[in-house]
Design a protein that fits this description.
The complex is a heterodimer. By secondary structure, chain A is mainly beta. Chain A is built from no helices and eleven strands. In chain B, the strands form three sheets. In chain B, strands 2, 5, 6, 10, 11 and 12 form a six-stranded mixed beta sheet that branches. Chain B has a four-stranded antiparallel beta sheet with strand order 3-9-8-7, with no helix packed on it. In chain B, strands 1-4 form a two-stranded antiparallel ribbon. Classes of the chains: A mainly beta, B mainly beta.
Chain lengths: 114, 112
């Protein structure tokens, strides 16, 4: 089944404790992206990747890092999480970065930072 | 700046009645417009998109949307609502490469 898989689905952590949210897709998609969803704000892009070793900032990149060493994986790293990073996170992928392409989303990762 | 507005936080409709979820956009050039739906504890699922051509776009689960360039709108519609349509709906616009701009979302509640 074609899908985007995120882990963990739920995580409660404390301020300053580094964490990684993994994202993997099995569709050989070139483009991958991370979004955060907050009530009343919709989804906002954190980082995106056009292909292996090609990443760039989205609208809200502060406090996050990403890497794209393999085509299928695009982990999101929070080096020193803070409470304002409590949110619902989605990874998504598409065949390319063309604006006409449909995004396939993962099921989401709900992160709480205490 | 590019933006998408969904003016209603929530839409309530009785089962069997027609539904409309509103969306307006502000982008430069010709927009690509999308509707996605989010069910509880699930990721977003694609419903339909407008790229070019016919202004009336048909999508999954009986949904359709009408692109109106003069009103910069892309409202989502369905002739007869089902209780199972209850979910969070997002309108999105791609004004260029690499990025979708999402509206804040509209919660649709269909009552039996």
């Amino acid at each position: 089944e074609a899908q985007v898989t995120q882990n963990p689905r739920y995580l409660i952590t404390v301020t300053g404790k580094k964490l990684t949210v993994t994202c993997s897709q099995n569709m050989n998609h070139e483009y991958m992206s991370w979004y955060r969803q907050d009530p009343g704000l919709g989804l906002r892009q954190i980082y995106y990747s056009m292909n292996v070793e090609v990443t760039d900032k989205g609208d809200v990149p502060e406090g996050y890092k990403v890497s794209r060493k393999e085509k299928r994986n695009f982990p999101l790293i929070l080096e020193s999480p803070s409470p304002n990073q409590t949110s619902l996170y989605f990874c998504a992928s598409s065949r390319s970065g063309s604006g006409a392409n449909v995004l396939t989303f993962g099921a989401g990762s709900r992160l709480t930072v205490l | 700046a590019q933006s998408v507005a969904q003016p209603e936080d929530q839409v309530n409709v009785a089962e069997g009645n027609p539904l409309t979820v509103k969306c307006t956009y502000s982008v430069s050039g010709n927009p690509y417009l999308f509707w996605y739906v989010q069910y509880p504890n699930r990721g977003l699922q694609f419903l339909l998109k407008y790229i070019t051509g016919d202004n009336l776009v048909k999508g999954s689960y009986g949904f359709e949307a009408e692109f109106n360039k003069s009103q910069t709108s892309f409202h989502l519609k369905k002739p007869s609502a089902l209780v199972s349509d209850s979910a969070l709906y997002f309108c999105a616009s791609s004004g260029g490469y690499n990025k979708l701009i999402f509206g804040a979302g509209t919660r649709l509640a269909v009552h039996p």
